[in-house]
Give the backbone structure.
Amino acid sequence: MNATVKSARVKIGRRFAGRRALITGGASGIGFATAARIIAEGGDVAVIDLDPEALRRSREALKLQFAERCDVRYAGEIEGAVETAARALGGSIDFLVNAAGIYRIKAVLDLAPDEWDDVFAVNLRGTYLASRAVGRRMIETGTGGSIVNLSSIAALVADAQEPAAHYNASKAGVIALTKQMAVEWAPHRIRVNAVCPGLINTPMLRMMDNPETGAAYVENFVPLRRLGSADEVASTIAFLLSDEAAYITAVAIPIDGGLTAC
């Protein structure tokens, strides 16, 4: 069994020419792959992230017009970043991708309230704050737009091998938030969807900390018998952002090699 990443081979077009995107957590992992994909298809991208070194690398690698540090837990920082990013991009923000997130493993009985709050503050509160700031601008300008939130298959299934109730619950909240924003903002031509990645080969993946155990898990539980890649998730996000998905809103799509079907 080969558990290494096989990047999706896709034809790159110009779907995003003249369009502007803001990506939270866009300096690494799925956020970075999504930024690269949008740029490759002609779009302009602004990135916010908490990691200054990752921001520096992403700014250089992607020649970003805007890549700044921002803590998505705080409304003032998010609102300021959205305003500054819009100016840097030279117009309204057409797309938002909420990729900022943290993953922690701890059993429920060992989980402290502060640890619960920390995960919710980034994963759910951060998604809400960024979506509110961008959604408000989309409504005020009348431009409409598309938002994609990163949830997880952890919102859909539990896993005793990696207990993470705080993470799982926060990502389930992202799906509920996605659906509610989608129905509230549909009259303003704003679509809101979510993706639920499974075992994706990014810095956040903990399953492969022990390569032997991780490989056995992939072999036994993932029908496609390999890890996914950040590029493969970015492809689905790009589709949901694009006009090709113009009649799709309020969905949460698993990208998991069939894991949740088992």
